[in-house]
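Sample pair:
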Amino acid sequence: MNMKRIEAQTLEEAYKKASEEFNCSITEINYEIIQYPTTGVMGLFKKSAIIVAVRKIPTNSHKDIEDKKIEEPIEELPTTINEDSPKVEDKKENIDIKKDDKVLDSFFENSEDNNSKFNDDRDSPKNRALAIEIEDKIKKLIEISCFDIDTIEVDVFNKIAHIFIDGEDAALLIGKEGYRYNALSYMLFNWINSKYDLYIKLEIAEFIQSQEDMIVNYLKPIIEHIEVNGRGKTKPLDGILVQIALEQLRARFPNKYVAIKTAKDNRKFIIINNFNSAKKG
């Protein structure tokens, strides 16, 4: 994720500088305004425009992303649920399932909520050494970024690296509607999982807690539908919402098949049915 901090006299100049930095059109860039420019009073208290920009991943690179097991392009991804959206998907909706999402599908495979034995072994010499090593490397990553972060803590237990990040720029690190959180969590997951064979749980400030509360309310009518009909599915979800919903549904239905599916448009949803009819989902 090549993110850059751009400063200029006006927003227009900042956008232009960003396009020059990334050698692409402005339309190919995602940006967030950190500071709006002001003219000040009689030349005093004048402020320049500051943005944080990152280049979008082209659509034609999706295949390369899948080969690297990165789940979504790094761009502004909607991670909130519209209350006007239907709570339970229409059974007649024809969604063409492309493939299982093995990375997200197994993300919580070793969590205590998935019928696995919880093992708080964080004080073992191996896990303490892993926690220190991962924490030091994340600190170095944050140090070269433009974010003001003063708290980075890592605990390793139960085959999961629990990462907590906080600081003055925590909201900026999360990004609008969580798109930057998604990018960081996928990057950390692919690095930590491939190098240390660990899963991760990333918390920035209280972002995950707020998302979990939202998903609990969203899943209530879906859970009721499943309890009556024996099966069901969610609406398409993005980023961390898929992971949170997967964890909650597996905890609620330990004896059912609960898995992530990906439609042709790359949007992900969760299906829930009986194991003997899993292939029919």
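The chain has a mean pLDDT of 75.
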